[in-house]
Design brief:
The protein has 4 helices and 17 strands. It is mostly beta strands.
Amino acid sequence: MRLPAWRRDCDDAAMAPRRVALFAVVLVALGVGVAALAGGLQPDEGLTPQTSSPKTAVADAPPSDAGLVAEVEKPRYLATRPMLQVIRRNAGTSPAQVERLQLVTPGFAPRTPTVRDATLPPGRRVDIPIAYGRARCDASAAASPDEPLIMVQVRGEESEVRELRVPLPQPNETLDRLQDIACRQRAVRQGLDLGFGGPWTAGEAAGDATVRGSLVIRRRGSDEPVTVGAVGSNVNFTLRAAAEPPAPLVRMDPATRSARVPVEITASRCDAHAMADSKKMFLFPVWVTLGDDPEQYLEISPEGRGRRMLEELIQACVAGRDGG
């Protein structure tokens, strides 16, 4: 897939260390009702059965007597999930109702529509997460003439249901960046085995609450130069190289097949807030560059014995705080 030059320089949390990005694009769909958000959404949630057999019409554009204004962004709370947040406002003068939405774009495989069945009064706003599928990274996706759109199912009077095709603005920076990130991360995963390895050991001295292992990089299908800029900590654990780390942490020329960096992990926070708030307790960030591509943000997690030792470490930290 041939990518525009600006996309190689974009500043994104998945492409540069310790940055958080928020991507937004405004989608204007005149004449569509919106539904209130009620409860969480599971990405694989299916359609709810119809309670009647309404007549269905298909329109290329929404009717013109009502309005929906929507924005799409990638907020932090969805950073690890294949979902976008749709911010919708009822700009019409009467209550509006939407039953489902689905993102349809050549850059991503389709997912089951997001189902909602509620009424939004005029002037009100609702934020709804919708799922998007696996990124399509082949040349056919890049060359597709199809433009991204949102399929919206609206229930009208007398239970009539309309399927509206609402096109998204082009160029679409949010979708382009998400696809770019996903495809570059996939290229790293396909080219390298990147993770933790043993031997795993625990501190033996009194007060040494440290687990020791290694960051391991092995080539799979790539012969390009590899640079690991850094590996980082998370809310609950502090991870650091066992010795004074060079900058970058790892550099592999095409002839080097593998590399190993000893690391040390300690439980740094086990207070109630950190334990309750952490959704990625055993995930550690790592920044990797493959060939001439921009640096990519990935997350790795210890498995097997390493995972069990970290679980014991955090449990011991909690017990110490509780006086156990």
